[in-house]
Amino acid sequence: MKLYYVYVLRSQLHPKQIYIGYTEDLQGRINQHNAGQSLHTSKFAPWDCMVALRFPTKGIAVTFERYLKTGSGRAFLKRHFLPSDN
């Protein structure tokens, strides 16, 4: 069964900078971010994975990723998953 991940990264050098994404290969994708292979994240590398949630379908993962990128989704992340110093 194929699984999809929604993940939240936090920059080690700029802790207030987070990135939200989805993938089928979590570790491979994190490695790409840390190697500077992603245009949107290269200038804030290296990254720590703060949250990774697994979903059974791509549709559910994409929907949840989009939610986390909204104002209420970011508030949800901060309240439930990210340290209070963020």
Notable traits:
alpha+beta; 3 strands; single chain; GIY-YIG endonuclease; three-stranded antiparallel beta sheet; 86 residues
Describe the fold and architecture:
This protein is of the alpha+beta class and 86 residues long. The chain contains three helices and three strands, in the order E-E-H-E-H-H. It has a three-stranded antiparallel sheet with strand order 2-1-3. It is globular and about 35 Å long.
Blueprint of the fold:
Blueprint: E1 4-11, E2 18-23, H1 26-34, E3 47-55, H2 58-68, H3 71-80
Antiparallel strand pairs: 1-2, 1-3
- Care to count the β-strands? 3
Strand order of the main beta sheet, please? 2-1-3
- Helical coverage, percent range: 25-40%
> How many domains in all?
1
Just give the CATH class. Alpha Beta
Low-confidence residue ranges: none
The shape is globular
The CATH architecture can be given as 3-Layer(aba) Sandwich
Order of helices and strands: EEHEHH
What is the residue-mean pLDDT, rounded to a whole number?
A: 95
Structural class: alpha+beta
Q: Using the CA coordinates, give the radius of gyration.
A: 13 Å
